[in-house]
RNA sequence: GGGCGCGUGGCCUAGCAUGGAUAGGGCACCAGCCUUCUAAGCUGGGAAUCCCGGGUUCAAAUCCCGGCGCGCCCGCCA
């Protein structure tokens, strides 16, 4: 059981002993650790809540878990024994028990899956950052996680790209594929929207691709592969790793087989086929979801069903990280797939878009800020700050770390469903609620430990300062934070916790000198700093941020 | 039009699931703190109709109903 839960349970037990069947709640700052609001007993007991709280206070038994249980107005407040808490927390952190979660089921988590028609832009960046972080948190919680990227190489957009590469000389010749060929894609899109015959040519291309034309497949594989490599490189720069890329075209035969299986639930319209959701007994805002075009080519919807069933062979729990625009699509896929394979559980993690002040970003229209450019700018800004400090060769490494961590954190620190309007200064903020603030705090702790040489001894009785106790309490919450983040599939819970923890360490740093304290206190404080460094380092890793010893 | 999401100081944001004690942070602004462990830090200050209107309740930012504003979706695109 988690440390804080042990205390909570103890409080509930003490209440039960005096005949009160109720659960304590987390208390507000300054009112102890747990509280029992007594308003609810007023009617029954025909007394004021304050009198009831007082009565409970007098009856309740003493326990070594709590240093004080007292009535404050209508509340009965429980104050945890700092000594007991410190003893449990420090030992569990130092020997690693606090990080031992039970092994849990395997999960396939899909994120990003951006069309390989251009470089990743900031509007899309929320997906890999949230997805990658969620995968890390789930792993921390004991799940085995396989991270997937579903590569669209079979749809209209990609056919447009291929047509553009074949028919339009590239304006830009050097650089990463994604930055080069995006011009061909944009130009081809424009031409296709202007001229019907070009759109026809693109459709023809798509048909040939899907029918398995070998020469074209080879060409597509090379070009799309190169685009994808560009995207992959960008992802690696922000510390996002994909375990497996699954190409849509590889699932077409299977998709067609599944369409057969769904035959009883389909309808036909001008030669195109759709799933009739009513026939499947599914109620959604839309009833027809198309599987086939009238030219016989498959649609994304069908391929996505096939893909989810494929993922279902790897794990029973699937997590999809999706933009808010995919909600309807997702619920349709989920209900169909879970019907075809009732053992599967598919859960979404939706996020809202990152927009520009002028509106939505679009690769096709070229109204974007590329993630590569944002990373570059972040690096430049960090280097600028570092030139005044003499870190020499390490500067570049530090600047890279600061750049990607800042970008990740600026996304993670906002609740997923809140819309974000992109601003350079905000995405690359280096102070306040930011990655550099947290990493800086880590570096401060590291610096103390470098100089202090902790001898692996400590006495929790000496850790009585308010800031020491607050820091220990916050650290003790780590397992619950991870659990709660997994249950609600919200990485930002962990991101906020990281900030609070760093902030609390800075309070401690201000009020409690470590190195200059007398030997025993010094050792105990070093143990606290050591524990803090372990736990914050762990959190940084779980958030995919850099942990720097110096900055 | 229907569905989903969002609405908290000048700007950004936490809290909302499980209603409770002074609505917590950050940016910006003002005033301070580097002969002592890293000032990417810390302290203090001003600044809030918690979108609006009803309702439930001893108690509403939080729950319910009705509005308003913004975003997304309602494609033989993905």
User: Which strand order spans the largest sheet, edge to edge or round the barrel?
Assistant: 7-6-5-11-12
CATH superfamily of the largest domain: HUPs
State the distance separating the first and last CA atoms.
Answer: 37 Å
Helix content: 40-55%
Just name the CATH architecture of the largest domain. Answer: 3-Layer(aba) Sandwich
Provide the β-strand percentage band. 5-15%
Number of domains: 3
Radius of gyration: 28 Å
Mean pLDDT figure: 95
CATH class type of the largest domain? Alpha Beta
Which of globular, elongated, flat, extended, rod-shaped describes the shape?
A: globular
Number of helices: 21
Number of strands: 14
CATH topology of the largest domain: Rossmann fold
Give the biggest beta sheet. 5 strands, parallel
Indicate the structural class.
alpha/beta
pLDDT < 50 stretches = none
Describe the overall structure.
The protein is of the alpha/beta class and 551 residues long. It folds into three domains: 3-80, Gyrase A, domain 2 (2-Layer Sandwich); 111-251 and 307-355, Rossmann fold (3-Layer(aba) Sandwich); 372-543, Isoleucyl-tRNA Synthetase, Domain 1, CATH 1.10.730. The protein has 21 helices and 14 strands. The strands form four sheets. A five-stranded parallel sheet has the order 7-6-5-11-12, sandwiched between helices. Strand 5, helix 5 (122-140) and strand 6 (144-151) form a beta-alpha-beta unit. It is globular, with a radius of gyration of 28 Å. It starts with a helix and ends in an 8-residue tail after the last helix. The mean pLDDT is 95. The structure holds one RNA strand of 78 nucleotides.
């Amino acid at each position: 059981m988690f440390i804080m839960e042990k205390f909570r349970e103890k409080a509930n037990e003490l209440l039960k002993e005096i005949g009160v069947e109720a659960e304590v709640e987390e208390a507000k700052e300054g009112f102890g650790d747990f509280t029992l609001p007594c308003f609810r007993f007023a009617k029954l007991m025909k007394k004021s809540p304050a009198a009831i709280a007082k009565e409970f206070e007098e009856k309740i038994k003493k326990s070594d878990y709590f240093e004080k249980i007292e009535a404050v107005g209508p509340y009965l407040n429980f104050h945890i024994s700092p000594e007991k808490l410190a003893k449990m927390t420090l030992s569990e952190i130092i020997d690693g028990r606090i990080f031992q979660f039970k092994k849990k089921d395997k999960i396939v988590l899909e994120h990003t899956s951006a069309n390989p028609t251009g470089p990743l832009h900031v509007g899309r960046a929320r997906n890999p950052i949230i997805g990658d972080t969620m995968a890390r948190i789930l792993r921390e919680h004991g799940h085995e996680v396989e991270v997937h990227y579903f590569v669209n190489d079979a749809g209209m957009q990609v056919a447009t790209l291929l047509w553009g590469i074949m028919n339009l000389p590239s304006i830009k010749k050097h650089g990463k594929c994604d930055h080069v060929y995006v011009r061909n894609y944009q130009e081809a899109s424009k031409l296709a929207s202007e001229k019907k015959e070009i759109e026809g040519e693109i459709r023809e291309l798509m048909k040939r691709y899907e029918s398995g034309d070998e020469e074209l497949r080879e060409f597509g594989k090379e070009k799309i592969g190169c685009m994808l490599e560009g995207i992959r490189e960008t992802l690696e720069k922000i510390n996002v790793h994909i375990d497996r890329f699954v190409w849509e075209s590889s699932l077409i035969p299977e998709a067609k087989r599944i369409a057969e299986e769904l035959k009883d639930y389909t309808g036909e319209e001008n030669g195109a086929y759709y799933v009739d959701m009513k026939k499947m007994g599914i109620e959604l805002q839309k009833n027809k979801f198309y599987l086939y075009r009238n030219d016989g080519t498959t649609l994304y919807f069908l391929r996505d069903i096939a893909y989810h069933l494929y993922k279902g062979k790897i794990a029973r729990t699937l997590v999809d990280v999706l933009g808010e625009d995919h909600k309807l699509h997702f619920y349709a896929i989920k209900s169909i797939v879970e019907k075809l394979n009732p053992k599967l559980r598919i859960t979404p993690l939706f996020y809202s878009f990152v927009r520009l002040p002028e509106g939505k970003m679009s690769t096709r229209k070229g109204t974007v800020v590329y993630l590569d450019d944002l990373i570059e700018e972040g690096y430049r800004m960090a280097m600028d700050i570092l030139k005044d400090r003499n870190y020499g060769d390490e500067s570049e490494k530090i600047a890279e770390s600061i750049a990607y961590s800042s970008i990740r954190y600026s996304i993670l620190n906002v609740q997923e469903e809140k819309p974000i309007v992109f601003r350079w200064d905000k995405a690359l903020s280096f102070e306040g609620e930011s990655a550099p603030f947290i990493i800086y705090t880590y570096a401060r702790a590291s610096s103390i430990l470098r100089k202090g040489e902790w001898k692996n001894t400590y006495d929790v009785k000496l850790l009585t300062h308010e800031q020491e106790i607050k820091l220990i309490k916050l650290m003790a919450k780590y397992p619950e934070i991870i659990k709660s983040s997994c249950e609600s599939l919200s990485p930002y819970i962990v991101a906020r916790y990281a900030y609070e923890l760093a902030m609390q360490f800075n309070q401690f740093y201000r009020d409690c000198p470590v190195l200059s304290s007398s030997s025993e206190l010094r050792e105990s404080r070093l143990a606290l700093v050591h524990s803090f460094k372990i736990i914050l380092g762990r959190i940084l890793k779980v958030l995919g941020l850099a942990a720097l010893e110096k900055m």
